[in-house]
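Usage

Read records sequentially. Each one opens with the input sequence:
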Amino acid sequence: MILFRWGGLLAGAALAASLGFAQAGAPAKSDAKPKAEAKGNGKAKESPQAKTAPATYVGAETCALCHEDISKAFGGNPHHALESNKDWKGQSCEACHGPGSAHVESLDKKDIRNPARLSPEEADKVCLNCHLNQPTHVGRIQSSHSKNQVPCTSCHTMHQSADQLVTRKPADINAKCASCHTSEWTSFQLPYKHKLPEGAMSCVDCHNPHGRNLTSTVRAVAASNEPGCYQCHGDKRGPFVFEHEPLRTDGCTACHEPHGSANPRMLTRNQPRVVCLECHANVGTTNINSAIGNVPPAFHDLRNPRYQTCVDCHVKVHGSNVNHDFLR
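and closes with the structure output:
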């Protein structure tokens, strides 16, 4: 009986030890090695969680410790308004560059997001987080700049002052546009052109560089889809009782070169009658003597110099309120 009880106690002690419970007054023994023990040098291993831990926000003051010049210039930048935004208060830098704790620790540029080094699509997404629903940027996603992979950072320098972030002077705007649109800028060197080289106007007077809801970047007159030409040439706008149809269907560019031309009045052809004959040549009519362009001798015998300048008689070529032939 005594031997049986003694054997039971030994078996119970062995079972408790195998389950990791300590006997009274003695610590439990374990053969397991410490998880953090390193091989060879006795230092703790870095856990996988520490390697994959997401970066955290460190604040704009931390950024300014290294980027002092940029931080000072940023004070006059419109984006500095993020400092008063409840979501980005004290973290205006990281609103665009992302959390900076990893960059602060490594000082490696690969550990911080730089929109200037991102692909055009990714760079635009950073800007459109704030600017997507603003009126001047409503068409940015579908504009020609976007479709041609031209990011916002190609025209805007984000850290500079307000005057440098958004160029205001016509000469500076034209120089920036001309750096890509060389053929259009060449047109402005022709004898008859809009006065861009003189700095009297800029490209953005006629074009919205961020695009618009329609396919063209040409600015439209407010509250209508009419060309932006009418902002300066309002006397040609109408409405007229008798409209010249090309103005309604093709717009001003049916007869005029918008950037510059070697022809007077920026016409597409060297003579006004040639421009007219692009539409009015061989027009069918029941009376052969009444249509311009028919085989002479017609009423408008184009061999006669008096008929070779159409606008001498048809002076209201943009439209008339009193005469369907645009004579007055």
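Summary fields computed downstream for this record:
- The mean pLDDT is 76.
- The chain is about 30% helix and 0% strand.
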